[in-house]
Here is the input.
Amino acid sequence: MAAYVIGHISVKDAEKWAEYKRGVPATIVPFGGELVLRGQRKAVLGGEHRHTDTVVIRFPAIEAVDGWFHSDAYQQLIPLRLQAADVDLISYEAA
Here is the structure.
């Protein structure tokens, strides 16, 4: 069953964020990950949403999400992510 990682993002440092974004794709490939969407908010159609950017990554299974997130390659990027942006990162399993 497919699984997804959705990141809601507020960029603090555009240069560091660009560096982080360049590094992520190589970390998802070994786990069968695919970047589905990377975009900027245009409107909040209901409720509230504090972030300006969103990313959606599809994985073949929730186990692949866990493997990716805990991999050495991705863990090495987390300090850069923390400097670059405020990110709420959530995993979902498709129903």
Summary: The CA atoms of residues 10 and 86 lie 5 Å apart. The mean pLDDT is 97. Helices lie at 14-28, 62-70, 72-84.
